[in-house]
Amino acid sequence: MAVNVADLIRALSDRQAATERQLSEVAAELKALRARLAELSPVAAVHQSAAAVAGAKTPIAARETSGSKKGEVTPEALVMIAAAVTAFLGKKVRIRSAKMLQSPYEVVNPWSQQGRVFVQASHNLRSRG
Length: 129
What we know:
Order of helices and strands: HHHHH
Helix content: 55-70%
Distance between the termini: 94 Å
Structural class: mainly alpha
Strand content: under 5%
Number of strands: 0
Number of helices: 5
């Protein structure tokens, strides 16, 4: 069984060229997919929606609030919320009202606090000594 070395080198060279062509095609497709993914990314959609919503009129309640009192939502926050909802739903939305809710950790009822103090004080702690 005689194997011609020149034929093997030529076949190997052809295979290598074909592999490099396929690799460059895959790289081009990957680049195109990354660009498409960047277009379809939720973050990009939010930024595009924010730009579209920012051009629209803000709700009257948001325009009337010049200061940021506790519990009020700023117009910028309303624009970002509207943009996020628009990106999520795929259609333009209009926020009619929004308000901040208090966290349960921010509100401390004095009666509850006194009850906890009473219960904790009633435990008999043994002194170790």
